Amino acid sequence: MITSTNQQELGPQHKGDDRLTARLRRHQSWYRANVLCAGYGVGPKPTSLNCYGNMLMADDAERGANFLTPEIFAVAKRRLAENSGVVERFRLLYNMLSSQPMCFNLFAPLADDLEMATRLIAALLPGEVAEVLAVVLEFNPVPASAYLNDRTAFDAYVEWRRPDGQMAFMGFETKLSEPFSQKVYDGPNYRRWMGPMSPWLPDSDVANIRHNQLWRDHLLAVAHQRQARSTYEHGRLAVVRHPLDDACAETAAGYRKLLHPHDDTFVELTLADVIDTWSGAVQTEAERGWLDGFRLRYLDLATSGS
Asked: What is each CA distance from 284 to 122, 164, 193, 289, 291, in whole angstroms?
């Protein structure tokens, strides 16, 4: 039974949080105390000494408490065992406020059930999906030299066959409360994917710090479709953000102005868009329970008074 909680049970919050992050941190703290019935730990790094209400204690983190189902935790453990890409173990297992475990809670069920993945992705992209062939978490195509020659990765990646038999994919960048990277990357490894047939308008300020991470994510999608060994006729980048994240929405809107007006290779969705759409396509109680659990964990902030 879910009950209310007091500030002591919530655990320490962070005085420097912006308004959205403060609400989300409080909600995750409430979820930990009232749904998981777990204590709070230290973070956000393994070497941190400060306690926060959104951090899990070691015993709870290592048993998979940051994930909605044991099956999602199994996918996370398999991905960690691969020891590749940009998966951060402590962030994934211990930090309830991080977008990385949120991404696993959203996409990992699809990785082991491609029939369900086909139904759900087809609901997001009507008429485009005949069969989902792969769902990968934290996907960075290799060798890096054939793409951007850096560590840019998709938080999630879905590959499918279209009704006309052509191959397509979508890379996902998921955001909960973290801002986009404030480090600027530019140079020949990136610019080589821009040209007359690219999504960007001529002379677009793509390297601007506001848009630089989105540009690199989008570049990875373009490179993945166009590099020499590609079998893809279609590729897209989708940003999936919290519906209350106005800063991310503004960044995405500003970035879209850098693209050709009819470009369809950049998509913006909210978590509510995804969950509402998928809720109409689920077929079993287990599938519905997973989505209801996701909604409680990330979207129903009123439940915690956040």
From this structure: 17, 29, 43, 9, 11
Residue 109: closest CA among 89, 130, 135: 135
CB-based contacts of 220, cutoff 8 Å, min separation 6? 141, 147, 148, 152, 153, 154, 171, 237
| 59, two tokens | 């015993």
What DSSP string describes 185-249? --SHHHHTT-STTSSBPTT--TTSTTTHHHHHHHHHHHHHHHSTT--EEEEEEEEEE-TT-HHHH
Burial class (CB in 10 A: 0-12, 13-18, 19+), 273: middle
Task: State yes or no: pLDDT of 246 exceeds 80.
Answer: yes
pLDDT digits (tens, 9 = 90+) for 169-198: 999 999 999 988 888 999 999 999 998 889
Query: What's residue 1's pLDDT?
Result: 41
Token pair listed for 187: 């140079």
- Please state, in angstroms and rounded to a whole number, the distance separating the CA atoms of residues 55 and 58: 9
- pLDDT value at position 171? 98
End-to-end CA distance of the chain: 19
SS3 call for 138: strand
The DSSP H or E segment spanning 172 is strand 167-174
Q: Which of 162, 164, 106, 163 is nearest to 135 (CA)?
A: 106
Residue 282 DSSP class: -
Q: What's residue 7's pLDDT?
A: 54
Rounded distance between C-alpha atoms, residue 176 and residue 100, angstroms:
9
CA distance 66 to 92: 8
CB 138 within 8 A of CB 155: yes
